[in-house]
């Protein structure tokens, strides 16, 4: 029976908005990680049957099927196809799920999955425009939900209220994310997954830019809550707007052997789930339950979890509902510290998870991402040891 294995996973540093990567076109960011996959595996690009690329704001520089543009920008043969998918913040996690399904079904043998977002150059929400063309939701959707146009920040506040999460709890979680990411960087835990990015001005971006040290609860408590007066969600306990790209090489065990590649993890199970689109960010909870049921793996068997840190209320609500061990969740920090380049985040998170599983010898790792529209992907990875 065919399987799906990941043989390489790479990412750029995550750049702060208007930071070190702001001068790099999204297609060139993508080409950087595609080139790194070839350099690190030694495969010929011509063996790649397809490239499936996540990108959320597909407008301006990120339109015209950036997955295909990235292939050509990387100098790969014109025979290598590429396509672009949008499942909001989980776009590149979905790209990996599509890649796994494609190779398991026999429609392809080697697929590269990943994604990109340059939030410096293509601002979040710019695909919607100024509203003069009408709401992208349409009258039937708005009628169903009482005229409410969902907003992720408001959704994060709704989640905090529903699960009784205080401002202090959220801010403490945010500080922990920075602490864990800072320790991982200092320990060299990200070194294997990172590829440096040359910029037009000749500098080389080599490290994640969002990690901050020295934060305090007092400083975070002083930040405003823009989504609700007297609320609990602030810029300090939310993910950062960022730039970046990531890519994973997906194939079968048999094809990996033919190509001289060593699988790192097996894609054990993938699911997607839907939930309330107004609260928007709660679907990782049912997605996790669905994944556990479908995989037959118990929560207690999973050694590492990566849960989207779009806002601190998301992983805290997930923890409350699943009962997972907080010490196993986002052990190298998350999007609050590292940043959240929308279309790249799913692949960035999975890249970090793959390397963390290998370095720690962890058999099972679970990743789940909250997504616009009340959606969530969940993926279970299994370390390959034979």
Automatic annotation (TrEMBL):
<dbReference type="InterPro" id="IPR002155">
    <property type="entry name" value="Thiolase"/>
</dbReference>
<feature type="active site" description="Acyl-thioester intermediate">
    <location>
        <position position="89"/>
    </location>
</feature>
<dbReference type="InterPro" id="IPR016039">
    <property type="entry name" value="Thiolase-like"/>
</dbReference>
<comment type="similarity">
    <text>Belongs to the thiolase-like superfamily. Thiolase family.</text>
</comment>
<protein>
    <submittedName>
        <fullName>Acetyl-CoA acyltransferase</fullName>
    </submittedName>
</protein>
<dbReference type="GO" id="GO:0016747">
    <property type="term" value="F:acyltransferase activity, transferring groups other than amino-acyl groups"/>
</dbReference>
<dbReference type="InterPro" id="IPR020613">
    <property type="entry name" value="Thiolase_CS"/>
</dbReference>
<keyword id="KW-0012">Acyltransferase</keyword>
<dbReference type="Pfam" id="PF00108">
    <property type="entry name" value="Thiolase_N"/>
</dbReference>
<dbReference type="Pfam" id="PF02803">
    <property type="entry name" value="Thiolase_C"/>
</dbReference>
<feature type="active site" description="Proton acceptor">
    <location>
        <position position="340"/>
    </location>
</feature>
<dbReference type="InterPro" id="IPR020616">
    <property type="entry name" value="Thiolase_N"/>
</dbReference>
<feature type="active site" description="Proton acceptor">
    <location>
        <position position="370"/>
    </location>
</feature>
<dbReference type="InterPro" id="IPR020617">
    <property type="entry name" value="Thiolase_C"/>
</dbReference>
<keyword id="KW-0808">Transferase</keyword>
<feature type="domain" description="Thiolase C-terminal">
    <location>
        <begin position="262"/>
        <end position="382"/>
    </location>
</feature>
<feature type="domain" description="Thiolase N-terminal">
    <location>
        <begin position="5"/>
        <end position="253"/>
    </location>
</feature>
